[in-house]
Amino acid sequence: MKAVCWMGKSKIETLKVPDPVILNPHDAILRVTRTAICGSDLHLFDGFIPTMEQGDILGHEFMGIVEDVGRDVKNLKPGDRVVVPFTIACGQCEFCHKGLWSACDNTNPNAHLMETAYGYSGSGLFGYSHMMGGYAGGQAQYVRVPFANIGPLKIESYLPDEKVLFLTDIFPTGYMAAENAQIAEGDTVAVWGCGPVGQFAIASAFMLGAGRVIAVDRIPERLELARSLGAITVDYTEQDVSVLQAMRDLTGGMGPDSCIDAVGLEAHSNQLQGVYDKVKTMLMLETDRPIVLRQAIQAVRKGGTLSVPGVYGGLLDKVPFGAAFGKGITMKMGQTHMHKYMKPLLERIEKGQIDPSYIISHRITLEEAPHMYEVWRDKKEKVTKIVIDPWAEKAA
Amino acid sequence: MAEILRTDARTALHERPGAEQSESRTLGANVVEDGRYMAPPTDEDGKQWVRTSVLIKGEPRDLYGLWHNVEDAPLWQEQIASVTRTGEKTSHWTMQSATGTLEWDSEIMSDEPGHRITWRSIGGDSENAGEVVFEAAPGGRGTYVTVLQEFRMGKLASTFETLTGRNPKQAVIENLRHFKALAETGEIPRTHGQPHGPRGAAGTVKSAAYAENVAQPPGLERMAS
Ligand SMILES: NC(=O)c1ccc[n+]([C@@H]2O[C@H](COP(=O)([O-])OP(=O)(O)OC[C@H]3O[C@@H](n4cnc5c(N)ncnc54)[C@H](O)[C@@H]3O)[C@@H](O)[C@H]2O)c1
Ligand SMILES: [Zn+2]
Ligand SMILES: [Zn+2]
User: Fold this and answer.
1) pLDDT per residue over A287-314, tens digit each?
2) I want to staple A61 with a disulfide (CB 3.0 to 4.6 A). Which of A36, A143, A232, B204 is the partner?
3) Are residue A135 and residue A18 in the same domain, yes or no?
4) Do A57 and B57 touch (CB under 8 A)?
């Protein structure tokens, strides 16, 4: 089959690789019908996530048709159409029982690598480094899905793939970000980053009762999408704009009730602070660039909540913890507990409350994927979300 | 005031609705004795120790049963090719490698059904002894399974290391992890055998510790074939 492979930092190729086979009793094999490139994949492309190896198959956002199932998969049969959560969960351990699906104990065969770094290991993920399981990803024509008895969500309605695909990660991720923000009716919520995760965080904040949403980014078409959802936008690169000032101005001097960092470790900055972080990450004294995190901690109101769906991987420098303590804020974060959100969010899509396909800007083939990683990273085109049809042939 | 001063810590707290009933025993694998945390033994005189625990959703009695069934050990212990019962308390263990076979005999020293097993090797290529304790976790959350394993660095330990890229202490930790996965889900998570692109020269060296390159024990998959 064809698959998108990580061949080194800034080096991605579409290659012929062997087809996946069933390895365990709860496995399924899918014929992938749609898959997407995620902001998280850019962290891999840029070499920010350790334990990637040459030849790793990328992709954690995908859906498809069941081809084959293992002996103990009773809920699926060949021909079923399913969306697959990017976190793999066993459904049986203490964490799965608690609904902390992305903390599952039994799905990371390389748990020891994460234990060394984090103390304990989270669940395995598709296509996201050996430390996080080393599972082959879904930017491919076929994919093996472990614990298919627990994860995949069957789509039985007529809805086209594009409307349900984002249940695989970013819609639940944006929704959990809003839920983690502990929004009360009428609250003001500020969202940094208007990428796909930020978009769904904005939409979900409104669904959960936010009275005002402030969205921060610099990319015009993304800010425009945010305004189309009803948010007030702040372009942090505009002359004379101070984000902290904007937050005060838009909240009667009080600060937002909740702040959401939907940017993560590769935050961009044109200020001196950004240069400082860039130099330190180059010298390996700091691994992440927590510019947005710092801003959000400063901006949030006293006793407010900071929700962090944006990914951080390692060590952060100059995090204003004193401000966090001084204001008595709550922080919530982490990989999305996918399995908890997929079904209720599918119901919202089926009821017509939201059509997640509005963020798609590019529809491409597997062959075009390596180039599109570059285009997205370098913001060469107006990219909001890239969807791949793994069976489409390159247009001549 | 005086009354408060006379009150000791044990009686000062009158309500502990979720607390465990403390039991005290004097066994090596015990993590708590008389209310005190006990650190694991430290390595000395060529003897190495490792102690590791997991929480498993299940009853102590069932998990004890799974462990006690030594002939099923190849399902969840790394690199074990076969285990045969040779007597009421003895068994013969075989570890298969590309370079040859390691064999040893093992004997159960003490056996408290549903609660605790201790064993030691009695000749062959390995010198080891171990203990496993199964106890109900506080709050009815399942069973804490704690393994204490002692071994001497020798042929087994060093062969194991070259075979699997794991040091033998880590192997004890991994085996308990496999035991938990098997007990809770019926399978052991696996990436060995999945597709990937060309690994290149560097990949093969660096990735010795990845599950993709270490054949994981088969779990119940073996029973199917
Ligand atoms: N928690 C999870 O389970 C989970 C799941 C998916 C994605 N993520 C993470 O969420 C984050 C966003 O993902 P995405 O797909 O939307 O990525 P993306 O790269 O498309 O979007 C990030 C956006 O942040 C903006 N940005 C950069 N610096 C900024 C700054 N200083 N202030 C304000 N905006 C800034 C960029 O212009 C961009 O529009 C990533 O870190 C990704 O890894 C987390
Ligand atoms: Zn994603
Ligand atoms: Zn689990």
Assistant:
1) 778 899 999 999 999 999 999 999 988 8
2) A36
3) yes
4) no
